[in-house]
UniProtKB/TrEMBL annotation:
Keyword Transferase: yes
EC number assigned by the record: 2.1.2.2
Pathway annotation: Purine metabolism; IMP biosynthesis via de novo pathway; N(2)-formyl-N(1)-(5-phospho-D-ribosyl)glycinamide from N(1)-(5-phospho-D-ribosyl)glycinamide (10-formyl THF route): step 1/1
Protein name per Swiss-Prot or TrEMBL: Phosphoribosylglycinamide formyltransferase
HAMAP family: PurN
UniProt keyword annotations, A-Z: Purine biosynthesis, Transferase
Organism: Terasakiella brassicae
Length: 203
């Protein structure tokens, strides 16, 4: 399965995907890493792994559609089968999401549908929840919505700072994102409408 990973920052999730795909029997190959931020450290991680990189700076395009057209051209020319958003901090238009429907997944640092959006760890602590976590899901037009593929839960401990909790969640992100990609690449999971099907069994 040919994969493109879209990033905007450190790319620690990208690194987890790189490490999974580097295994001999890996069912997926990262064809390209694309960042909308030129200085994203994730680009260094890709170069270290001999993976092609492209910067498409959204500030150089007037409007989302123009930026996404540039994105689409690169993805199309690489004949990518699946896009993984990993710390990619741009909202994608409905048009792009529909064009890549069911071939576009994302990781969100919360147990969706709780805590969509930003600052999820601070909000989880503020809300007093006892469990928090991460979600890998198929992308749908509405932000942080879509059929859930894998989740991981972590306890919120007394005295946790947002950083403490974030680190505990990130550790799980690095486990479930490669797992989700592997499941999809090995066709052990697929999406049908809004339902995720595991080996023929609806979740
Ligand atoms: C992570 O919390 C991830 O869940 C979110 O972006 C943050 C940074 O990810 N999508 P990364 O280290 O750039 O992969």
């Amino acid at each position: 399965l040919k994969v493109a990973v879209l990033i905007s920052g450190s790319g620690s999730n990208l690194q987890a995907l790189i490490d999974m795909c580097a295994k001999d029997d890996a069912p997926a190959e990262i064809a390209r890493v694309i960042s909308n931020v030129e200085s994203a450290y994730g680009l260094e991680r890709a170069k270290q792994a001999d993976i092609k990189t492209t910067v498409i700076d959204h500030k150089k395009y007037n409007g989302r559609e123009a930026f996404e057209e540039a994105l689409h051209q690169v993805l199309d020319s690489d004949k990518v089968d699946l896009i993984c958003l990993a710390g990619f901090m741009r909202l994608l238009t409905d048009g792009f999401v529909q064009k890549w429907r069911d071939r576009l997944i994302n990781i969100h640092p919360a147990l969706l549908p709780s805590f969509k959006g930003l600052h999820t760890h601070e909000r989880a602590i503020e809300a007093g929840v006892k469990f928090h976590g991460a979600t890998v899901h198929y992308v749908r037009p509405a932000m942080d919505e879509g059929p859930i593929i894998v989740q991981a839960a972590v306890p919120v401990l007394p005295g946790d700072s947002a950083d403490d909790l974030g680190a505990r969640v990130l550790e799980q992100e690095h486990r479930i994102y490669p797992l989700a990609l592997k499941l999809i690449a090995e066709r052990k999971v697929r999406v049908s409408g809004e339902k995720v099907i595991y080996n023929g069994v609806e979740n």
